[in-house]
Amino acid sequence: MSHSFRSHYFHIVWSTKNRADLITNNIQSRLYAYIGGIVKSHQGVLLQIGGTANHLHLLISIRNIDKLSYLIREIKSRTSVWVHSNFINCKQFAWQEGYGSFSVSHSAYENIICYIRNQEEHHKIMTFEDEFRTILKKHNIECEEKFIFG
Questions:
Q1: CB within 8 A of 133, min separation 6: which ones?
Q2: Which of 6, 43, 55, 75 is 20–30 Å from 64 (CA)?
Q3: Dihedral, CA atoms, 106, 107, 111, 117, nearest 10 degrees?
Q4: Fold classified for 9-149
Q5: Is the dihedral of CA 119, 95, 144, 140 positive or negative?
Q6: Are 65 and 110 in contact (CB under 8 A)?
Q7: Phi, psi (rounded to 5 degrees) for 59
Q8: Other residues' Cβ atoms within 10 Å of the Cβ of residue 47
Q9: Per the database record, which ranges form the Transposase IS200-like domain (predicted)?
Q10: How far, in Å, CA of 42 to CA of 25, rounded?
Q11: Burial level of 148, CB count in 10 A (0-12/13-18/19+)?
């Protein structure tokens, strides 16, 4: 083959530190836009973002998958600094240490978009902790409970 062709979608999930309700309504839309800018600056596309007051879901497409971990670290560190600088009353804002990253096939793309878009409704019946355990199980990721949430 004379060219390389790629299609990489990732569903990325992480929470605020100790799953505290820190993503308030007055922060959320600006935070989401800021994250979109960070992804774009790394030659990625933020296809969908959603979550609740204590966690985020992102669906991104990124050209260089070798830089995925770096991009996630950049998003988390830059948004923490940004929140502290722009929302004076949110000095306690912090993200959890880890994250979940799950590959998404093109055939599942629309389902993940809907899933992320409907986070508020989804979490009326399921906690983030139960949701994340379910995602891990769906992707055949086994780990000890003590390592999931710290």
A1: 148
A2: 55
A3: 20
A4: Alpha-Beta Plaits (3.30.70)
A5: positive
A6: no
A7: -115, 115
A8: 19
A9: 5-119
A10: 27
A11: middle
Q: Do the beta carbons of residue 31 and residue 90 sit within 8 Å?
A: no
Q: List the structure tokens of 71.
A: 């991009």
Report residue 131 as tokens. Answer: 């949701």
The model's pLDDT over 102-125, given as tens digits with 9 standing for 90+, comes to: 999 988 999 999 999 999 888 889
Task: For the sheet with 9-15, list strands across it.
Answer: 44-52, 55-62, 9-15, 100-104
C-alpha span between 43 and 80 (Å, rounded): 21
CA 62 – CA 43 distance, rounded (Å): 7
Closest C-alpha to 92, from 103, 79, 83, 101? 83
The answer to whether 109 and 45 are in contact (CB under 8 A) is no
Structure tokens at 37: 């800018």
